[in-house]
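hey
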């Protein structure tokens, strides 16, 4: 096996030319979100919905060298929080802000915050607002999520139309107000490159997006490019781009890792191969391969840089810890469901035991950790 040159880091920037999924997970937030994006005219969802599609134009996107963390905004940028606008530099982990879920504005929790200094910043001006951000900060447009550096004058950008006001009446009042927030499209008036040395901030949230200076910003796509339904030639096109970007690092994630085995000789040394493995039990909540099949494929996979995502975590048996050990991942993410699906999840104490066990065998990244819904 070739030497792998990946130094694993947090990856907050995403690039995915393949969209859509047929796993039909009962707890899938992405399907609802894609339907809403389609109704708003956003491609490729307008044309294909949540059916698998290859967005050829994304294969031609410029991809940043080095770490995928530069999806950021300036410190004075106003973030829509549950209690009104707040500068991003003052927003912290655990704060409740507003995000987009299923096409509607909803409360969202900040689970990570990154601070970086960039050599180049972009100033994007629309009809009613402007934002200073990194070149790779992505905004929702009629062409899908587009990085600032790829925006063009005249592009339609999704913005909050009505002004958000301060609110001191608590979460219940705030949730009611979320339903009154209206989104719409504004034209990009200016795209300018700013000077160097700008300190920028990025937030990772439970809805995977946030509203910055009134503009909907997002840092992930929704698909499983390794599903059995994806043609080999689509995957080959993606891997060809990956091989041409050796200084960039790519994190793949799937519920169908046996397809990794078909491409082992085509992976370059800048990829991390991940699997979503919520439990060792088969709850039949999805059409994806059952957990044991995913586990066995990851054990067979002859690749050093592997990752396991236990999200949303479901109740498990003791052998689940052995599974993770046998997969030998470099990193494991663990988190509870964020969308109120009332899944068969473990009690908090059981999850803490799992986390303690995993700390001894891998790098651990806890995300949303809370009591099970039935413990409240």
């Amino acid at each position: 096996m070739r030497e792998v040159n990946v130094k694993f880091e947090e990856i907050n920037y995403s690039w995915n030319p393949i969209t859509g999924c047929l796993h039909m997970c009962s707890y899938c937030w992405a399907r609802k979100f894609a339907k809403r994006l389609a109704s708003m005219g956003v491609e490729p969802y307008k044309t294909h919905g949540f059916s698998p599609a290859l967005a050829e134009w994304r294969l031609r996107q410029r991809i940043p060298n080095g770490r995928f963390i530069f999806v950021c905004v300036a410190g004075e940028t106003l973030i829509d929080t549950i209690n009104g606008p707040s500068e991003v530099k003052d927003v912290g982990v655990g704060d409740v802000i507003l995000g987009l879920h299923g096409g509607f504005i909803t409360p969202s929790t900040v689970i990570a915050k990154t601070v970086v200094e960039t050599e180049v910043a972009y100033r994007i001006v629309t009809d009613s607002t402007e934002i200073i951000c990194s070149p790779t900060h992505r905004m929702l447009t009629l062409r899908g999520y587009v990085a600032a550096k790829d925006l063009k004058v005249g592009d339609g950008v999704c913005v909050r139309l009505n002004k958000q006001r301060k609110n001191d009446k608590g979460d219940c009042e705030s949730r009611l107000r979320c339903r009154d927030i209206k989104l719409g499209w504004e034209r990009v008036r200016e795209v300018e490159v700013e000077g160097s040395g700008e300190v920028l901030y990025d937030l990772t949230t439970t809805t995977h997006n946030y509203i910055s200076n009134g503009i909907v910003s997002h840092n992930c796509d929704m698909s499983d490019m390794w599903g059995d339904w994806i043609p080999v030639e689509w995957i080959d096109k993606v891997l060809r781009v990956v091989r041409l970007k050796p200084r960039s690092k790519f994190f793949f994630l799937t519920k169908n890792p046996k397809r990794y085995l078909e491409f082992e000789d085509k992976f370059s040394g800048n990829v991390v191969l991940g699997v979503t493995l919520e439990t060792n039990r088969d709850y039949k909540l999805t059409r994806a391969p059952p957990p044991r099949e995913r586990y066995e494929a990851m054990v067979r996979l002859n690749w050093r840089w592997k990752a396991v995502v236990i999200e949303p975590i479901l109740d498990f048996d003791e052998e689940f810890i052995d599974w993770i050990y046998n997969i030998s991942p470099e990193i494991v993410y663990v988190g509870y469901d964020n969308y109120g699906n009332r899944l068969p999840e473990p009690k908090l104490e059981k999850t803490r035991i799992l986390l303690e066990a995993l700390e001894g065998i891998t790098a651990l990244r806890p995300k949303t950790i809370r009591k099970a819904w039935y413990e409240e």
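The chain has two domains: 72-218, 223-375. Helices lie at 30-39, 45-48, 56-59, 171-178, 232-243, 291-300, 319-327, 348-359.
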